[in-house]
Specification:
This protein has 204 residues and is α/β, with parallel strands linked by helices. It has a single domain, classed as Isochorismatase-like (Rossmann fold, 3-Layer(aba) Sandwich), CATH 3.40.50.850. It is built from four helices and six strands, in the order E-H-E-E-H-E-H-E-H-E. A six-stranded parallel β-sheet has the order 3-2-1-4-5-6, with helices on both faces. The structure holds pyrazine-2-carboxylic acid (VGL) and zinc ion. Pyrazine-2-carboxylic acid (VGL) binds next to helix 3.
Length: 204
């Protein structure tokens, strides 16, 4: 599918990067593997470095479930056991650069609720990401990560609802595609709601 992308994207104050759920269980070989999920690590590292060099805020969300979470098949949910907090599967992908200045945002940590949106996750001090973005007067968010058709989609839609301009990095997202075409549907949905698309190389 051909996605229309921005010619170039010059970063400025008010921009923030959100890296969604780049965790071991979502990589090939993981419990809930996203095909080619490992391919986005390198382009994301490039973007992370640019944000860091420009002193712009970075947020890394993580799926952070208690054991026996309601989203697991054993509890009547839809997914295999994945991203159980403090396990290797829930750890960020090896090779992903996580600057010390970055904020780690944990989501879906309550047993009885699932949460696909990174904006509903919390930092270590209990601040919710949507509130942090508002407080820091973030106007544009750049988003990459996993999976296009679940947590990226919901994070994008929530950021648009919050009033941010949202730029999805086309080469830094991948879909689960439980049903073939879920990726295209997700991109269409994001487009319809006002998201824009940019390739990692055009960010500077
Ligand atoms: C996700 C399925 C279940 C995601 C999280 O990060 O996209 N997908 N939990
Ligand atoms: Zn999950």
């Amino acid at each position: 599918m051909k996605i229309k992308t921005e010619e170039s994207f010059a970063l400025k104050r008010g921009d923030a990067l959100i890296v969604v759920d780049l965790q071991n269980d979502f990589l090939p070989g993981g419990a809930l593997a996203v095909p080619e999920g490992d391919r986005i690590i390198s382009p994301l590292n490039d973007i992370i470095k640019i944000f860091q060099d420009k002193n712009l805020p970075l947020f890394f969300t993580r799926d952070w479930h208690p054991p026996h979470h309601s989203s697991f098949l054993e509890s009547g949910g839809n997914w295999p056991v994945h991203c159980v907090k403090d396990t290797e599967g829930a750890a960020f992908a090896a090779g992903l650069t996580i600057p010390v200045s970055a904020s780690i945002i944990s989501k879906a940590s309550e047993s009885d609720t699932d949460e696909y949106s990174g904006l509903m996750g919390f930092d270590g001090d209990g601040n919710r990401l949507d509130e942090i973005l508002k407080r820091e007067t973030i106007r544009r968010v750049v988003i990459g990560g996993l999976a296009t058709d679940y947590c990226v989609l919901n994070t994008v839609l929530d950021a648009l609802d919050l009033g941010c301009e949202v730029y999805v990095v086309t080469d830094a997202v991948r879909a689960v595609n439980v049903k073939p075409g879920d990726d295209t549907k997700a991109i269409q949905d994001m487009t319809d709601k006002g998201a824009r698309f940019v390739s990692s190389e055009s960010i500077g």
